[in-house]
Amino acid sequence: MKENLAIGRMKLLAMTGATAIGLAGLFSAAFFAGNEAHAEDKPPAPYHIGVALPLTGAGTLYSKDGIDAIRLAVEEVNATGDLLGKHPVRMFIGDTRTTPDAAVRETTAMILRDQIRCVLGTYSSACAMAIKPVAKKHKVLHIAAISNSENITKTDYSPYTFSVVPNSYMQAKAVALGVARLAGEKGWKTYVTIASDYEWGRSTQTNFVHQLGKAAPELSLKKDLWPRLGETRFAPYIAKMISLKPDFVYASLASRDNIVWMGTAKTYHFYDQFPCPGSLISVTELITQAETIPRGIIGLCRAPFLAHMDIPLMRRFVEKFRAMYHRYPSDWAVMSYDAIHALKQGIRKAGTIDTEKVKDAMKGMTVDTTRGRLFFRDIDNQISCSSYIGVVADDPAYPFPVYKELVEIKGPDSWRSEQEILSERK
Questions:
Q1: In angstroms, rounded to a whole number, what is the distance separating the alpha carbons of residues 361 and 367?
Q2: Domains of the chain in sequence order
Q3: pTM of the entire structure?
Q4: What does the buried/exposed string (b/e) look like for 340-371 if buried means 16 or more CB atoms within 10 Å of the residue's CB?
Q5: Are 234 and 227 contacting, i.e. CB atoms less than 8 angstroms apart?
Q6: Element (H or E) spanning 20, and its range?
Q7: pLDDT digits (tens, 9 = 90+) for 228-255
């Protein structure tokens, strides 16, 4: 009898244990199912973009257009759900004040505080060079959309840094080829350069002189002048150039410096005495200096919307930009808008917003831009964009002068060879 009771208790305990295990399994399944349902209900992570551009000081003229274009692109992405159909984009702005220290401070703050995955900018190549190692350290994408020193992608290579701007070497070579042809036609023998004394000005002037020396070795540089960034008094420089009597002058000045320079030069009738081929004259200068900019001057620009109105993406961008801001987009707006499009296509190709996978997807990637179908070169992440040279002239279709006889120099025809880049990296 006792044995039967014991056996009965054992069976009961076994049944109870099995029931407990079964209940535990049910509770466990319910728990994980609940977690999965909760995870599915959780909204996808937003994609944070940082914009490192000056809101004050030198460079604000170009930067405003860049910020406005990025804001427009972000609104388009969010309205259409183009970022993999689920990740809303949020934009943060850091005021670099056009100084490397401020650029590093603001970029670092956006990375740590705002959790940005990509930083766009900057104005001033010195600022771009300063934030490049910051982005690399924190594994954040960095897209140069305004600054264009070749060293941004050439030296101290970072796989996180990309450029959608024709770099200083590409622009200098494009101008050198054009100037060499003019020099031969006009019998020029000597020239003077004037360039802003910072990374971009130095890089552009150095590359121009080097390329011109190869294209027209008979030309002689009489003097190189280096006004500080933010210079407002160009009269002494003009007096010096007049005393040297060169056959032509090459200028590498940008933003407000360039506007002040052109205004002063015109006051002194400088352009009547000396040709200035290849000076940077973006759409910004064409618009803001419409009344005073000399007609007939040969200028250089980086991304004029006028050159690509046959491309549907450019036409739509110009229409939307004008509708939103009541003005035409400058080169700086075009390139900043293209930066967002390149990023969007990189994320689409990667199939994720994970930075490591996006940077790998963008390497060597072909992208559709307002300037046509371009590609990032494997060796340096430089995009294959063109440079443009033309003659400033009036056009009844626009309320400002435009470029006529516009010549487009393709990126692969003007950038430094891969062999040279590898040699300089040693």
A1: 11
A2: 169-305 (3.40.50.2300)
A3: 0.84
A4: bbbbbbbbebbeebebeebbebbeebebebbb
A5: yes
A6: helix 2-41
A7: 999 999 999 999 999 999 999 999 998 8
